Every structure is written in structure tokens, then in C-alpha cells.
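Two proteins, back to back. First:
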Amino acid sequence: MTLLVRFSVLAATLALPLSACSPPPLPGAAETVMVVHGLARTSASMLLLGARLEEAGYRVVSFGYPSRHEPMDQLVERLRTALAECCLDAPRVHFVTHSMGGIVVWNYLQGSTPPNLGRVVMLAPPARGSEVIDELADAAPVRDFLGPAGSRLGTGQDDLPAALAPVDFEVGVIAGERSLNPFGSEIIPGPDDGKVAVERARVPGAADFLVLPAPHTFIMNRRDVAEETVRFLRSGRFGAPSDVGAGSAADPDSSVRDEPAPGPGALNPPPAPSRAP
């Protein structure tokens, strides 16, 4: 099945309820990846990444949730229900998250660990909060837009990230250092992706950490991000040797393109970029 066909199958799932399981397991697929979008986004934002994960041989389940309308504990319960419906019988379940989606999954796994838990890849998580939230969330219109969970993603001791314990499960983090948001970058000290500082994306206890030249909003659409995500799901490290797409030629230009592959073929990561110190 080509990447375009897989993308179309995933797109068709958007008509399903927020926590629906989709699509059904691929023939012979042994492992499931649940993709979890970020604040004020929908499952559509994870479609391209999901298609690439399917191309690598995973069954992909997209978890949609009302990120702006419920507090964190209710979002976590939605995730728990979705997992019970979709993934209890899966041999292994991984998570790939974007932004606040990582905080939702982290909250869930802090309270319970499924027996079939695999690995977790977090893309641009506000693991230690965001100075942009600190700056803006006191304004009532912004607070109302962000909602009860999103407005608590700041850097303060009373914010959600401060309450999270170091992870005791396998996590790899990919942070971005390219900004499309000059206002946010003016507020954030040091390298950032326009919404989250590179240093604030670090998850205590994570197995690996990688920085790529990607902006926060579109980090999940980069081919190199998909390749590194597959590497971590396979090996527990970024840049580790991988048998993903064995028998397919790697695309030497794939690390700098954000568009879908032009034709069929399994995802086959090129040589790894340098990891952040």
C-alpha cells in the first residue's frame, strides 16, 4: 500500500468520534502506535506522520480529544477509555505525541502502566512548561481560548508540568529549534521552536534527546522526524542502526523535505544527525 493510500485511509477516520479506534490492524502487524495531537489541534495534524508510521509497518491509532475544553484529568480518562477500546489485545502499544499530547500521555502513564506498553516519542513537549503561556495565560481571552488544561502549561510551580515525576518508561524526545513565531521567540530564552524552549522540552528520565531544525507547529510533518521516531520505536535510541524498510533504498534528501514521499516504499532512515549534548 502506497503512502498516498495510507494517508487517504487515515484521513477517512476523521469522520469518526473523538476517541474512535482507527484503522483496524494491518495484516500481520504486531505493534500499534497511538498518535496524540497537541493543543488546539485535531487528529488531522498527525495524518502525515501516521501514514509514515504505517509505511514502516505499524498499526496506527489516532487519539482525538477536546484539548481546549476539559481539564487534564478528564483528558487522561478519555485516553484510558480509548486504550481499553483499541489496544488491550495489541502485543505492544507505543505512543507518539505532539506538544500537549505528550503531557496527556505522561499524566496517564504516571498513574498506570499498561502491560503491553512499548516506547514513547514526544515531539516538542512543554515538559518544563512554556514561557509563552506564562506571558499570555493571565489574559482572560487567551485563557479562555487555551482552556483549563492548556492554560496550565506554564513554568510555574502550580502548573501541570511541575507536578510530573521523572518518567519510568522509555521516552525519546525530539525538540525543534526553528521558529516561525518571532513574538514567542522574543519571550523564550535560548534556542526554541517558537513556543517551547529546547531546554524546556527535556523530559527528566528520558532515554534520548534530539534537536532538529523544526518549528513547533509543523515538527510532526518532517520526514526526518518520522525517520527518527521509527528509529526510537525500534531500538530505544535516536540514530541507532535500524532494519526499518529493509530492502528499500534510503532517500538521501529526506531529512530536509516536509512533503510526502512521491511513491511507494517503506520508510528507511538515512544516517542519523547529531544528537544534542
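And the second protein:
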Amino acid sequence: MRTVFLTIGPQGAGKSTFCKKAVTQHPSIIWISRDEILTRLFGTVWLNPYTGGHQLAFECMWRIVQKHLRKPDAVLLLDCWNGFGSDRALICRELRLRGAECIIGLHFVISEKACVKWRALKELDTKGISADEYAHDYRLFQAQPIEVEQGFDSIIRIQPALVSDYSFLLGSGEQLCLPGC
């Protein structure tokens, strides 16, 4: 079953770190990261929104997704910004059009303090964004609903600091796609 896990969480929630650990433990899982694509294309994730760079990265991301979803037993980890329910619904629709049979949201549950702490560790990478701005971003993200109705078969809540075994990502697609949270 072609299964896609979509990471959901604010900046600094540990989504990319989780994905890196998962593919290290299980190399058959394909990790597709919008930030990695942006960095490869432009050397950074911080782009002027009017340059078209983010659109180019999304087009590249969808080509990669399409290629991997040709495999009948594909398991993809899609690490892609989706702060609003409408973003998640659009991504889920695109994934279905491209052959995803099971879409599971991985909702990263982490404190505001931990996200702001991550920002401090990435000081050189944050383009002058203050801790207050990160905290505001966190609160905006938390105000958005995360629901199965956005196109998911199910949603799994993740506390990334507590995960050490990533084999649940390789479980039976039918089992993981049971409705509910």
C-alpha cells in the first residue's frame, strides 16, 4: 500500500530530526523534505516569497513524490510546511492524485518553550527572527485545527523526544489507515 506520512508541527517541533532518525533506522522509508529541496536549489530556506523559489521547490517536491509513489509498497515521509488546514487539505488532495492510498498525519506535540529553545540553537540560520516572533508563530500554528477531515486517513500524535523506535512507520498500511486519531 502506498503510504505517506505528512509531518505537522510548528518550526522547531523536531519534524526534520524525527525524519532523519526514522530513515537512519529504516532506509526503505523515503524522506522528502521541502527544506532540503530549497537548500539544494537556493542554499537557504529563507527566500523572498515573490521570487517564485518556493513554487519551484514545490514543483520539484511533487516530481519526487510522483516518482516514489509509482512503487506499490512505497512508504514516504513528507516533511513540508503546512501551517493551515487548507494547506494540509491541498497536500492530501495532491497526494491522492499522485497515487497515495493511505495518508497519515504525524502531529508533533511539543511545548512553546522547546520550539523557542530550538530557535536559539539555530541562531545563525534564522535570519534575525526573534524569540518573540518564534513564540508568536508557535501560537498561530497551535490555533489551527488539525483534523482527519483535511484529507487524512488517520492522525498520530508524536512527542518526538519520546520516540526511539520508528518501526511503527512500516506497519501494515491497512492497520495504520484505520480512521481516527
